[in-house]
């Protein structure tokens, strides 16, 4: 009997024809997340199995809880046949060091031709447990211990513990998107939610030195590092936005500063996305949060690009976004009080319902194309890696 981790896929099982593609992506992602640990990974359409060859099950369990595409994780034992008499003796053997006063047995057969059927197997095994252990009773509603038995072709599995996975699709299985990552609370959450849907992310940060500091940039790197825990690394593009912002400030009416600034950000984001094979832009806009996030503003800003813009937190309120930020441990970093390029040029009365023709007229007061070209050409690229993986790669 060998100890084994069993992974249940959840939503992935709804993929019929291309399930193998999703499962091989999941296996690759698990392999990367278990870098440095010795483990064998095998799978079929129903389950993935991980055997730790250096008995590192606790660490593996922790790592698996950060991998998207996993619905549930079970720790159990594999037997190399499915003969009922052998299952009986193994259940008894495994229960010897367990303390429990009530139990139930739940059986599943993946091979429906196996006899007896699941109900009958549970009943027989229940009888065996009652016979071998004193002072225990069957309780089907609220048992202290549930004995799970899964009978498969030529094998059976016995397990007692189940841990919830984080669900979603394997990162990368749905391609890549470019996350507009500021140092705020919303955009890291937006990135996390996109990762959860299987979208690998690259990130883009606009800095405006000397108006924004090195510390503000380091904060964004820290946030990218938090997100890299789910995808091994994040490629972070840093764009120097100073000249564009200063020119807008000098040339354009102040109530349109933010509208025009964001139109420039979107244009640059689209250009970086297309160069890097990112199929969508992702950002942390939330309907109504600030003047630039009214529906009219979104239209006027969005109209400069020809790429879908995904706004995972558009319909969440701030409290809901903060709850997720706390859960994924980006909140404490996000609330560090560093300036952002959006906050340093905030006009007193930003336009809430901008007019598209006015925006066009004002931005044509300067040659934004050449400024955008220059900003894109001078981008800095930083590979931000998950710390554990970075250490592992350094040893290699
Ligand atoms: P966040 O929304 O992340 O909390 P914020 O509230 O400062 O930060 P907003 O002004 O609400 O940002 O901007 C909306 C979105 O635009 C952000 O969620 C982010 O996706 C993008 N954005 C804003 N500033 C930047 C920046 N300096 N670099 C990259 N993206 C940015
Ligand atoms: Mg915001």
What does this structure look like?
The protein is of the alpha/beta class and 396 residues long. The protein folds into 2 domains: 2-167, VC0802-like; 176-395, 3-Layer(aba) Sandwich (Rossmann fold), CATH 3.40.50.620. It is built from 15 helices and 14 strands. The strands form 2 sheets. It has an 8-stranded mixed β-sheet. Strands 13-12-9-10-11-14 form a 6-stranded mixed β-sheet, sandwiched between helices. The longest helix is centred in the C-terminal third of the chain and has 19 residues, at 257-275. It is elongated, with a radius of gyration of 27 Å. It starts with a strand and ends with a helix. The model has no long low-confidence stretch (mean pLDDT 94). It binds adenosine-5'-triphosphate and magnesium ion (MG). Adenosine-5'-triphosphate is lined by residues 180-182, 184-187, 204-206, 283-285, 289-290, 340-342. Residues 184, 186, 284, 289 line the site of magnesium ion.
Blueprint of the fold:
Elements (H helix, E strand, L loop, with lengths): L1 E7 L10 H15 L5 E5 L3 E6 L4 H8 L5 E10 L4 H12 L6 E8 L8 H15 L4 E2 L6 E8 L2 E13 L8 E5 L5 H11 L3 E8 L6 H15 L4 E8 L1 H10 L5 H19 L4 E3 L12 H8 L6 E2 L7 H10 L3 H4 L6 H4 L11 H8 L4 H10 L2 E6 L1 H9 L1
Parallel strand pairs: 5-6, 5-7, 9-10, 9-12, 10-11, 12-13
Antiparallel strand pairs: 1-3, 1-4, 2-3, 4-8, 7-8, 11-14
Helix pairs in contact: 3-4, 7-8, 8-9, 8-14
This protein binds adenosine-5'-triphosphate and magnesium ion.
